[in-house]
Amino acid sequence: MIRVEDFTELPVGLMVPMEGKVERCPRCGRNGIEEHPSADIPFFLHVQASEILPDGMRDEALDCCSLAPRTN
C-alpha cells in the first residue's frame, strides 16, 4: 500500500506524528516539514510517498526544496 502525504495542504504549526512541525519553506514559501538527514543535505519536504514493505517502511520525497546554501 502506497500512501501520499501532501504537507502543503496542512496549516503552519501543526505537529505531524513521526514527521515534525509544519512550517513555511524559506525557498518557495509553501508549507512543509524541515528534514535534516544525518548523511545528506537538509531539505524542506512538501510531498512524500510512503510504502510498507515486508522488511520495513520506505519513504520517498516526491516534492522538496534543498536547504543547501546557494552558490553563485
Count, helices: 0
Distance between the termini: 42 Å
> Beta-sheet strand percentage?
over 45%
Envelope shape: globular
Report on the biggest sheet: 6 strands, antiparallel
Summarize the structure.
With 72 residues, this protein is mainly β.
Description:
- With 72 residues, this protein is an all-beta fold.
- The chain has one domain.
- It is built from no helices and 6 strands.
- Strands 1, 2, 3, 4, 5 and 6 form a 6-stranded antiparallel beta sheet that branches.
- The termini are far apart.
Question: How do the helices and strands line up, and which of them pair or pack?
Answer:
Elements (H helix, E strand, L loop, with lengths): L1 E5 L8 E2 L3 E5 L6 E5 L7 E11 L2 E11 L6
Antiparallel strand pairs: 1-5, 2-3, 3-4, 4-5, 5-6
List keywords for this structure.
6 strands; six-stranded antiparallel beta sheet; 72 residues
